[in-house]
Amino acid sequence: MSMINKDIGQKPVLEWVDVGLIDVDGNYQREIKPHLVDKILRGFSWSKFGAIVLSRQEGGRFAVVEGQHRWKAACMHPSVTDVPAVIVTHDGTKSEAESFLAINRDRMAVTSVEQYWAGLTAGDDTAIAISNVLQASGCDVVPAQGHYRPNLTNSISAIDRCLKRYGAGATRRALMVIRAAWPDDAKALRGTLITALARIIRSNEKTIAESELVAAIRPQSIAKLTAHAEAFRKLSGGSAETALSKAITELYNKGKRTNLIYIGEQRA
Q1: Which domain of life is it from (predicted)?
Q2: Percentage helix, strand, coil for the chain under 3-state DSSP, each rounded to 5
Q3: CA 109 to the chain's CA centroid
Q4: Are 160 and 192 part of one and the same domain?
Q5: Which residues have a Cβ under 8 Å from the Cβ of 58 and sit 6 or more positions away?
């Protein structure tokens, strides 16, 4: 067993603290993000709040070590006067800053896959919409990060953007094109490819033939297709999605005189 720290300091105290007695030290705290405060405020619930971490100061006041956005939302809520807190003893601002760094540096971030499965269990509208389009195309989300298999994806954010930009129909068709083109590739359902295809399909939904689209990209490995797109990007700049859209469009249009497709606009 590796050496452990035996000097663990004083036990913290658990208390309810008046929000008016709490301050934020700008020497080490990040700037408060109003949109995060607003999100917490709109969905305020004690079951989701947890306890903030405070450092006891002189004069009966406290400094926020962790949880300043939750504290700010609590200050703005008309029904909240006190917040649950873990109160820790620190030896000055330097010690508080060290605790702030340790708490935030050592915390394991929740992945988009974990957020998706939790959201689906909680009945979150975004997670349900993503699940619906995946299920309609014979796909699903990986059970955990790194567990890749054909027809599974971890591109949660990309699918969410596709649904908002190009709609469920184009997103579903894009997923099915990828399935048909590379049925055995465990990493085929990647975000940039899904987005590029959904963009093309939405812009050409009345003229594009999915069977021809599959036939155009199937001979290309995803690595070759990506390299082709990168060549476009070096010449004309733009996003990876735009470059990939150009590469796919060129392959589809090759040898055609009629029924040509175009990449369409990248929607916000």
Answers
A1: Bacteria
A2: 55, 10, 35
A3: 11
A4: yes
A5: none
248 CB-near residues (< 8 Å, 6+ apart): 196, 197, 200, 213, 216, 217, 225
- 249 assigned to some structural domain: yes
Q: Note whether 158 and 66 are same-domain residues.
A: no
> 227-259 pLDDT, tens per residue?
988 888 888 888 899 999 999 999 999 998 888
Question: Residue 55: phi, psi to the nearest 5?
Answer: -115, 130
Beta-strand ranges (E) seen in the chain are 13-18, 22-23, 52-56, 62-66, 82-88, 140-141, 152-153
Contacts of 44 (CB under 8 A, 6+ apart): 73, 74, 77, 80
Beta carbons of 248 and 214 less than 8 angstroms apart: no
| pLDDT per residue as tens digits for the range 107-166 | 656 688 888 888 888 788 999 999 999 999 999 999 887 788 999 999 999 999 999 999
Q: State which residues form the domain around 23.
A: 13-106
Cα separation of 208 and 180, whole Å? 16
Q: How many CB atoms lie within 10 A of CB 80?
A: 15
- In a domain, residue 263? The reply is no
CA 165 from centre of chain: 16
